[in-house]
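Journal club side-thread
Mid-discussion, someone asked how the predicted structure for our own chain would compare to the paper's figures. Pasting it here so we can look after the session.
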Amino acid sequence: QVQLVESGGGLVQPGGSLRLSCAASRSDFIFSTMAWYRQAPGKQRESVASFTRSSVPDYSDSVKGQFTISRYIANNTLYLQMNSLKPEDTAVYYCYFERGGRNYWGQGTQVTVSS
């Protein structure tokens, strides 16, 4: 079993920045996918950024150039640097890891962008 623990959410003013972290409880596993999703009120969960089998990250069009995903593979920690935040970035952010067909989700961290 793998637990994912997220941190770094909070309240930020428009134009501000936040950095999310997601740490896996197993540093010895190799995950095929490491990703960030978000779910805004009344909307479906959507992919934000991800690493799949390629080391080149993939971003949704809505955050390209604004968010940066990174990872420290040695301890399976995933990061999301979010800059120039806008009110429409308000959502619960979830990390997601996949290994051998098993899916693992973080508990979610609230990001609120408001003045």
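Post-session note: Residues 70 and 112 are 22 Å apart (CA to CA).
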